[in-house]
Amino acid sequence: MNIYQIEELLNFAKKQMLKKIILIIIIPAAAIFLGLKFIKISTVDPPIINQLKTKFSGNIEDSPFQKEYLNKDGLVVVNVWAPWCKPCIQEIPTFKKISKENPNIKFVFLSIDEDAEKLKTFLANNTINDITLQNIEYIEAIKTFLGGNGLLGYSSIPLTFIIKDGKVIDKNVGSIDYNEFTTHLKTLQ
Questions:
Q1: Distance, C-alpha 145 to centroid of its chain
Q2: Which of 145, 130, 112 is nearest to 43 (CA)?
Q3: What distance in Å separates the CA atoms of residue 176 and residue 158, rounded to the nearest whole number?
Q4: Residue 80 — φ and ψ, nearest 5°?
Q5: How far apart are CA 70 and CA 105, in angstroms?
Q6: Rounded Cα–Cα distance for residues 182 and 97 (Å)
Q7: How far is CA 187 from CA 47, 63, 71, 170, 181, in A?
Q8: β-pair type (130-132, 167-173)
Q9: What strands, in cross-sheet order, belong to the sheet with 159-164?
Q10: Distance CA 145, CA 168 (A)
Q11: Which of 78, 104, 97 lies closest to 189 in space, CA to CA?
């Protein structure tokens, strides 16, 4: 083998190695890109978030929402959802199952739908413990809960928060996984 053949062989090996390196970079990058396309979340309409961000004054300590859900001992799971959010609807049966298996945990669903009629129709066909933004008794407490816990920075739903003894201890953006979520809840009890 002469020097030119060795040099040609080295160039060939470099090209093959370069191809492998490119594939090692491109394939995972493409997988991540495509994976992000299929994450189960829905973007929230900005007017709804802006409505929640509206500043207000008032004492919410005596509100039914505060007393019934936020000041409880133990665990409370709060899910922010809307009837037009497909991933939200898909996870409702999962929440129902988890709720039935864990009667000591309080579950509440905060609907951010602005169309009260569509929400009423949905709730008539689906039994869930829903509190809506239209509920005047709860709106200020909900705004305080979301804003005070830095939760208004999210622009996707579903959002799930775990509250323990009145404090948010965990947040999940996107649909929950039954096995992971139930295991996590057990560690928190």
A1: 16
A2: 112
A3: 9
A4: -95, 125
A5: 12
A6: 10
A7: 37, 30, 21, 12, 10
A8: unpaired
A9: 130-132, 106-111, 75-81, 159-164, 167-173
A10: 9
A11: 104
Which tens digit of pLDDT belongs to each residue from 104-140? 888 888 877 666 677 777 777 777 765 555 555 555 6
Quote the pTM value: 0.60
From residue 135, give the alpha-carbon distance in Å to each of 18, 52, 70, 165: 61, 13, 16, 24
Q: How many whole angstroms separate alpha carbon 189 and alpha carbon 8?
A: 66
List the structure tokens of 111.
């609907």
Number of residues in the chain: 189
Could you tell me if 125 and 106 are in contact, meaning their C-beta atoms sit under 8 angstroms apart? no
Chain centroid to Cα 135, Å, comes to: 22
**CA neighbor of 147 nearest in space, from 168, 132, 130:** 168
Alpha helices, DSSP H, located in 102-177 = 116-125, 139-148
Instruction: State the average pLDDT over residues 42-64.
Output: 45
Structure tokens at 76: 């409370």
The candidate with the shortest Cα–Cα distance to 44, out of 123, 113, 135, is 113
CATH class of the region 42-188 = alpha beta
Distance of CA 159 to the CA centre of its chain: 3
- Going by the DSSP 8-state scheme, the letter that residue 44 receives in this structure is P
